[in-house]
């Protein structure tokens, strides 16, 4: 892992690519994955880590390595299609019929089948978008899924946007005015707008640590190199719904989730208490843990407690 990371460097036990046939892709596609530990030669259920975005990469999920090094849980990390070291399809930018949640469900199913986890069993931890997509995946009762963790994931896209607009209204007025001025002039990607977002907004509502861990920044760099997935699925504004996930909601599917589920959120983040309510109230027996000293990234902000909570849930304590 990169220097400055909260956890030491560890090489994967195995890494590679899995073919993924996508009708309409126009080319052969592959999903990149990493495995830490052994998936079968253990009495521990492997844990599959699903990164956020849409449009980021697995790099920041390396922050979950304590599950393996401290607790002995085998881990599977992967880059979702169009991201990181998996196949990129920039020619599909803007194609909302191609970039759908279902594509990522199919990719995850394909990966589980290729690794044999649909037969031997696995737990799934989804962070942010990974939890959103993971919730509706779990509602399909996929073969092999044992437990589900929805970490910092809203149950609807609109509730995330509503939370972010509320937090924006709480910024000092001069910062609100500057954001509006940049939006009106179409300079959201400029230094002033991005500076306010990075130095003021995200420090309050994404992650309070300074500087951000290098592997977290690297995950975002992938989206900067190729914004096909991000721009097509949710647009480039934090404050407006757009793209193929504009009307996304898991609220109607939560009662179909039958596996034990842990719901996690932080304070003053996009996955607000209101936005996770459908998960907490709609999934039978769901357990909710809130991290009051964290925003969107308790995996970094309250690291020791976060992993104790995860391990206790995954190990059935």
From TrEMBL:
This is L-amino acid amidase. The keyword Hydrolase applies. GO terms for molecular function: peptidase activity. Residues 48-302 form the AB hydrolase-1 domain. Belongs to the peptidase S33 family. GO terms for biological process: proteolysis. Coiled coil: none annotated.
């Amino acid at each position: 892992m990169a220097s400055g990371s909260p956890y030491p460097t560890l090489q994967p036990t195995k890494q590679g690519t899995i073919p993924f046939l996508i009708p309409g892709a126009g080319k052969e596609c592959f999903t990149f994955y990493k495995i830490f530990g052994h998936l079968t030669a253990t009495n521990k259920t492997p844990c599959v880590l699903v990164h956020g975005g849409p449009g980021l990469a697995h790099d920041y999920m390396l922050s979950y390595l304590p599950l393996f090094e401290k607790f002995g849980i085998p881990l599977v990390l992967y880059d979702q299609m169009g991201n990181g070291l998996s196949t990129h399809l920039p020619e599909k930018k803007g194609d909302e019929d191609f970039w759908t949640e279902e594509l990522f469900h199919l990719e995850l199913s394909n990966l589980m089948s290729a690794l044999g986890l649909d037969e031997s069993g696995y737990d799934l931890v989804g962070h942010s978008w990974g939890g959103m997509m993971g919730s509706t995946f779990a509602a399909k009762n996929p073969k092999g899924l044992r437990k589900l963790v929805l970490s910092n994931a809203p149950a609807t896209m609109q509730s995330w946007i509503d939370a972010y607009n509320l937090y924006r209204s709480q910024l000092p007025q001069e910062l609100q005015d500057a954001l509006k001025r940049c939006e009106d002039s179409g300079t959201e990607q400029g230094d002033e707008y991005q500076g306010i977002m990075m130095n003021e907004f995200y420090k309050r509502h994404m992650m309070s640590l300074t500087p951000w861990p290098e592997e977290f920044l690297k995950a975002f760099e992938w989206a900067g190199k190729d914004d096909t997935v991000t721009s097509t699925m949710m647009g480039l504004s934090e404050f407006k719904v757009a793209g193929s996930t504009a009307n996304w909601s898991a609220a109607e599917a939560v009662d179909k989730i039958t596996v034990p589920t842990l719901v996690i959120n932080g304070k003053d983040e996009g996955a607000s208490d209101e936005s996770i309510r459908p998960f907490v109230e709609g999934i039978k027996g769901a357990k909710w843990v809130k991290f009051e000293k964290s925003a969107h990234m308790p995996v970094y902000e309250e690291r020791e407690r976060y992993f104790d909570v995860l391990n206790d849930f995954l190990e059935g304590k």
